[in-house]
Design brief:
The chain is α/β, with parallel strands linked by helices and 242 residues long. It has a single domain, classed as 3-Layer(aba) Sandwich (Rossmann fold), CATH 3.40.50. The protein is 48% helix and 16% strand. The chain contains seven helices and seven strands. It has a seven-stranded parallel sheet with strand order 3-2-1-4-5-6-7, with helices on both faces. The longest helix has 29 residues. The radius of gyration is 17 Å and the shape is globular. It starts with 5 loop residues before the first strand and ends in a 6-residue tail after the last strand.
Length: 242
């Protein structure tokens, strides 16, 4: 059940993270919100508290392991446990390889892969000690299917799927830690705003995207299952997306 679970959400200031925070708060979760934009986090915390929910926030750069460790400690110190981590922070600056956008490649690797690993590393000590927990990593349809311009982004999202499956095999049986991969298709979020190639950005804009609430509902479904049931992977895309 979701009620009273302590849930850490990275990338909580907008999009999937924000929608998930609001939905889980309505269902009784105790939330620890993380992102880089403090103004957005503060507003979200206030909205949740006005609805009777419980939330704290901490400005966090997921590419800094010490900041992610501090986030997990905040959850433990504030609410007494670390039950769920939603590793949601991510970037999608699509470009073809011949554009040689090395800075964007490095940023995707740092946020989409290392950020996920730092989140796992931060919460596992608490979850292993309490012999329960749930780590939800946000991959993508691009982690199943590579398209022109998505080579590096898809590489990071394939990596997220591999890391999550490895986590499941290492921790589920011995320590009752569940692992879930959520792979969204096109979602109406700020991800496309990171694309610097205008031609590709326009093509992405033409695709009818899902509302972020659709992914929030998928996450809530996985969290809401009893501890002896692990929803390992959900792939969810707009009906109109090929």
């Amino acid at each position: 059940m979701i009620e009273n679970k302590v849930v850490i959400i990275t990338g909580a200031s907008s999009g999937i993270g924000e929608a998930t925070a609001k939905l889980l708060a309505k269902q009784g979760a105790q939330l620890v919100l993380a992102a880089r934009r403090e103004d957005r986090l503060k507003t979200l915390q206030q909205e949740i508290e006005q609805l009777g929910g419980k939330a704290v926030y901490q400005v966090t750069d997921v590419t800094d392991a010490s900041q992610v460790d501090a986030l997990a400690k905040l959850a433990q110190d504030t609410f007494g446990s670390v039950d769920v981590l939603v590793n949601n922070a991510g970037l999608m600056p699509l470009s073809k390889l011949n554009k040689n956008k090395q800075d964007e490649w490095n940023t995707m690797v740092d946020v989409n892969i290392k950020g996920v690993l730092y989140g796992i590393g931060a919460v596992l000590p608490y979850m292993r000690e309490q012999k329960r927990g749930h780590i939800i990593n946000i991959s993508s349809v691009a982690g199943h299917d590579v398209m022109p311009s998505s080579a590096v982004y898809s590489g990071t999202k394939f990596a997220v799927r591999a890391i999550t499956e490895g986590l499941r095999k290492e921790e589920s049986v011995e320590n009752n830690i569940r692992a879930t991969i959520i792979s969204p298709g096109a979602v109406d979020t700020e991800l496309k705003d990171h694309i610097t190639d205008e031609e590709i950005k326009q093509g992405i804009g033409d695709l009818k995207a899902m509302d972020a609430d659709a992914i929030a509902r998928a996450i809530a479904y996985a969290v809401n299952e009893p501890d002896d049931v692990a929803v390992n992977e959900i792939l969810i895309r707009p009906t109109a997306q090929q």
